[in-house]
Amino acid sequence: MINMKIQEENISYFINLDKFPIHEPQSSKYQTIVKEAREALDYDGCYVLKSIVNSNAIKDMQHEASSIESFAHYTSNKVNVYFSKDDPSYPKDHPRRFFMERSNGFVSGDKFPEKSKIKDLYYSEILKNFIADCLEVKMYHYADPLASLTINVNKPGDRFSWHYDTNEFTVTMLVQDCDKGGIFQYVPSIRNKDDECYDEVQKLLHGDTSKIKEIKLNEGDLQLFKGRYALHRATRAEGNKTRNLVVFTYTEKENVIGSTYRTEELYGKTLDVHKQTKVRSDNLTD
Ligand SMILES: [Fe+2]
To answer: CA angle, corner 8, sides to 6 and 12, nearest 5?
Structure first.
């Protein structure tokens, strides 16, 4: 509880409250931001709160991320958008059989130091409530101890191929940008809760770029993104600097845990909790 208090008192350290008064839900500024966020999220599932994080806080979190980036579980392999194995029962050109190069790493939630600025911000109730307001959902911190708070590490040359997220919404904060590349691309609502929409996915994978949207994130931006139904990727990181993207994961249901296969793939390990009965948000293939 004491930690929680300290953390909430320090929200002004993290957030530019003049521009984004996330601690004052009754203020007209707050309500204008939330309205704009809801409209954008309704429209294409994406909203960026530009420079919401103070530059000093970003510098500290950049340092923290760099100090643990060597713990990243690196994967360099070929994956399909569902992170599933090849299934010869589908036709050869089917999206489930379309494998792409992917190389990047994830620092899992258990690798953050006990005293962590990044953890403080993720577990801030003020921030969580504000984001929930923007997304118009009841929101919980992801119960998965590995996947709740992560850093996606892209060294020069790395890329993250097209994929969906396991959770309904993702909140990302760029703490260190690469020199060139690392552009976020997405295709809004390419699938839905009840339908994988394989035809649309197939078109994209076979070169149709007409529905791709692009965003160049800057250090200190916070991005709200509906990644469960939108295919997305980051283009190859180029130059000398590593791109470190902190991923805050929240779920609409309580106690959601990632699948064993997906967890093993991303973090190189699973815990007992992944093998036990778990709450999943829907029946889509990851
Ligand atoms: Fe993602």
So the answer is: 105
* Type of residue numbered 124: S
Question: What distance in angstroms lies between residue 47's CA and the mean position of ligand 1's atoms?
Answer: 15
- With beta carbons less than 8 A apart as the criterion, state whether 271 and 163 touch: no
Strands 73-79 and 46-49, by their bridges, are unpaired
If you measure from the C-alpha of residue 164 to the centroid of ligand 1, how many angstroms do you get, rounded to a whole number? 6
Task: Tell me the C-alpha distance between 215 and 184, whole Å.
Answer: 5
Q: Write down the residue that tokens 């050109």 correspond to.
A: 93
Token match 């931006």: residue?
Answer: 221
Question: Which residues are CB-contacts of 163 (< 8 A; sequence separation ≥ 6)?
Answer: 79, 81, 83, 231, 232, 233
Cα of 28 vs centre of ligand 1, distance in Å, is 32
Domain 2-275 is of which CATH architecture?
Answer: Sandwich (2.60)
Tens of pLDDT, residue by residue over 61-112, are: 999 999 999 999 998 889 999 988 999 999 999 999 999 998 999 999 999 9
- Rounded Cα–Cα distance for residues 178 and 170 (Å): 21
Alpha carbon distances (Å) from 166 to 142, 201, 218, 240, 280: 11, 17, 25, 31, 9
